[in-house]
Amino acid sequence: MKIEKYSFGVGDRFAHQAKAQLKAIQLGAEAGADIVPVWNKSHREHTTIGSEPPSLRSAADEAVQALGWDRNYYVDADHINLDIVEGFLDCSDFFTIDVADYIGQAADPAAVSAFLDRHPELVGSIEIPGIDGAIEITREYAEGVANQFFKAVSEAGRIYRHIAERKGEGNFVTEVSMDETDAPQTPPDMLIILAAIADEKIPVQTIAPKFTGRFNKGVDYVGDVGQFEKEFNDDLAVIAHAIAQYGLPDNLKLSVHSGSDKFSIYAPIKRALKDTGAGLHIKTAGTTWLEELIGLAEADGDGLVLAKDVYTQALENKEALCAPYASVIDVDDAALPSAEAVAGWTARQYVNALRHDQGCPEFNPSFRQLLHVGYKVAAKLGDRYLNMLVECEESITRNVCTNLFDRHIQPLFLDD
């Protein structure tokens, strides 16, 4: 199983928007964007919602059949480890192996030394096509990076082999994720990590590093866009070099996690892909849930009442909701409107505060981020929420599809 050059990760927390998401992919295909959908949902999201992994496969299969999609598609067991992978094995064909928790765990000094002895090419002045100037790596620096990441890569190997034992080699796509950590991985770090992945014989097809800057959930990139562009291009060059040097899969590509709504870096990414011919996997998971809320509010009436209730309860439970996502959100308490204020809002006021339109003076990033992590509130509402998704299907479908096509697919994959 070999994933296509461009793949687009979509999340569907309540398993109601697969058709709307696929419609956006179809619109992209009709306009010339040759991308494939990857539906992803993590163990944490399944636990919060109360769903099981096979439900995502069912929703994806039903959407594909209903819309007559005749290209490939994938179902991603997102952010899995050995403790939680079992429930995903039968229904997934894409596995995001998350080893961020192992980054920084001290490695066996003898193993690190043996690794560097096997790879003398990692030390010294390294010329990589596409990078201006040589990369200078000392033995001391390489030892530090190897010590930082060796346990993580080793764990990725263990998880990969467990999946392959059950599903058979070549029957799934493997991604290695190292993004949910504090410190970014530099291009020299990436080179050392990829050498270690090759040694583990992991046929990695996408790799998700931690980039410089903030990739907060559902809002734009925060950081130096110029620095990101250089880093992104250098990473592409390192990957191309590692493919040739270590025999990694020739379709290995970068994966951008929390890629939804990172509007300011879409142009640099698009330039890099055009200039290099590289592929891309980008995840836009949680933004669909927010478009559900926007669709509910736009429908007015009971839909707006429900959307307001979700915010009221999210505000009441803010600390508990935000804690698991502390590293990927920045909520300014002072910017959050009171529940009483929101109770008096019109549909337009709610939509304007939530929809990611930076040109709108009413847009409120803190309001949006709190609701982004507030899907647990909707899950607790049970049938009241799910039934309203059906009742307000027209406005929700329109918003989900428009958001993915106009704000994500168009600027990333289509000519201006």
Q: What do you see in this structure?
A:
The structure is a single chain. The longest helix is centred in the middle third of the chain and has 29 residues, at 139-167. With 416 residues, the protein is of the alpha/beta class. 48% of the residues are buried. The protein has helices spanning 18-30, 43-49, 54-67, 109-118, 139-167, 187-199, 225-246, 263-276, 287-298, 301-316, 318-322, 339-343, 347-354, 365-372, 375-381, 383-391, 393-413, and strands at 6-11, 35-42, 74-80, 94-98, 124-126, 135-137, 173-177, 206-208, 253-256, 280-283. Helix 4 crosses helix 5 (139-167). It is globular, with a radius of gyration of 21 Å. It folds into 2 domains: 6-285, Alpha-Beta Barrel (TIM Barrel), CATH 3.20.20.70; 290-405, no CATH class. The strands form 2 sheets. The protein has an 8-stranded parallel barrel, surrounded by 6 helices. A two-stranded antiparallel sheet has the order 5-6. Helices cover 51% and strands 12% of the residues.
